[in-house]
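Chain A, query sequence.
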Amino acid sequence: MNWFSDGGIIIMTLITLCLLMSVSAFAWRNYDRVQLFGRLSVALGLISFIIKALTAIKSLSIAPDISVQLVLAGLRSSLTPVLYGLIVYIIDLLLLLFKKK
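Chain A, predicted structure.
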């Protein structure tokens, strides 16, 4: 089970870039950018979840005899970017907690 590919390579890469950019902004003491990239990571995760949920709803409406295991596997893969975005946001909040004035 690979969480990075389950969440979608493109969206997980974008969230990882948000993490790298926020760490870079913290190193340059640009604390507004740290908050910006943290919020962007959560927004990207939520957008990915909405797109995947809408796709799943469309698929369920076409073929209503889909197994519960398949639906739950899709739910797990659609929630992975949201969780990863929230983890990045928490890391950004911890960085801001330790900033020097």
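The chain has four helices and no strands. The chain has a mean pLDDT of 92.
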